[in-house]
TrEMBL record:
Full protein name: Pimeloyl-ACP methyl ester carboxylesterase
Origin species: Microbulbifer donghaiensis
Annotated ranges, domain AB hydrolase-1: 21-251
Superkingdom of this protein's organism: Bacteria
Upper taxonomic lineage: Bacteria, Pseudomonadati, Pseudomonadota, Gammaproteobacteria, Cellvibrionales
PANTHER family: AB HYDROLASE-1 DOMAIN-CONTAINING PROTEIN, HYDROLASE, ALPHA/BETA FOLD FAMILY PROTEIN
Length: 265
């Protein structure tokens, strides 16, 4: 298992394919494996880099200090470790916060930017919701019930009409061999609450693609697109019949958007 050790973090990562580097940065409670529906196609065109963010997956220890800035620094350190001067960054949800922080603080290292299901800050409603999820975890709530509650917020209505898919997704989440601890989840929730880069968006010089799911409840497209369009060079894609977890619900449409933006579609 490839790992990189820096500042007390043993960062797990995977690399697939070859070509120009494309780093995929996962969202809250997610790790490198959340990108699996995209990896095969994207790795035909790019060197796809998949880190497990601090506090998730096979990155150790899970109880390490966590902030958006910390995770962004980890991503840049991974590029250094791999001998890469820059990469396109694709961030989903919290991963979008991380990608934005990289673009603001490390502009020369971000070739292009893809922001999926995200914004420049978290809403008050989302912050309260995520704190509730922390409380449910700490209370010892049944794991399957906890994931089902999260799924109501991240998947579209259509997703719940396919009972087999729902059952498989719940079973994968419950049986995942590298679960996130409640303490690590709480640290990520706190990191999300503390991040706000809205006033710095106009200084981002990377060409940016914004991808939204039309049914996203956490980061509604009508709100988030308006915020993110403060970035000078943006293009927008809204994917029908998808909610917050866009790349899981419609990986083909999502991949097509990315490849077209990067010149391979």
């Amino acid at each position: 298992m490839p790992t990189m050790t820096l500042n007390g973090v043993e960062l797990y990562y995977e690399c697939h394919g070859k070509g120009q580097p494309l780093m995929l940065i996962a969202g809250l409670a997610s790790d490198s494996q959340s990108w699996q529906p995209l990896v095969e196609e994207l790795s035909r065109h790019y060197l796809v880099i998949l880190p497990d963010n601090r506090g998730t997956g096979r990155t150790k220890p899970q109880d390490i200090d966590t902030s958006i800035r910390h995770i962004a620094d980890d991503c840049m350190a991974l590029l250094d470790f791999l001998g890469l001067s820059s990469a396109t960054l694709l961030g989903h949800s919290m991963g979008g916060f991380v990608a934005l922080d990289c673009a603001i603080r490390y502009p020369a290292r971000v070739a292009k930017l893809v922001l999926a299901g995200t914004s420049a800050f978290n809403s008050d409603r989302n912050n309260l919701l995520f704190r509730d999820w922390v409380s449910y975890l700490k209370s010892g709530m049944n794991t399957e019930l906890w994931f089902r509650n999260v799924f109501y917020w991240i998947f579209s209505r259509r997703f719940f009409e396919d009972r087999e898919t729902l059952t498989d997704a719940l079973r994968f989440a419950v049986d995942y061999p590298y679960p996130q601890s409640a303490a690590a989840f709480e640290k990520q929730v706190d990191a999300i609450r503390e991040f706000n880069c809205r006033e710095k968006l106009a200084g981002i010089n990377a060409e940016t693609l914004i991808i939204s799911g039309k049914e996203d409840l956490l980061f509604p497209p009508e709100d988030c697109i308006e915020v993110l369009q403060a970035i000078p060079s943006t293009s927008i894609r809204v994917i029908e019949d998808a909610a917050h977890s866009i790349h899981m619900e419609d990986p083909q449409a999502f991949t097509d958007c990315v490849l077209h933006f990067l010149g391979n579609g």
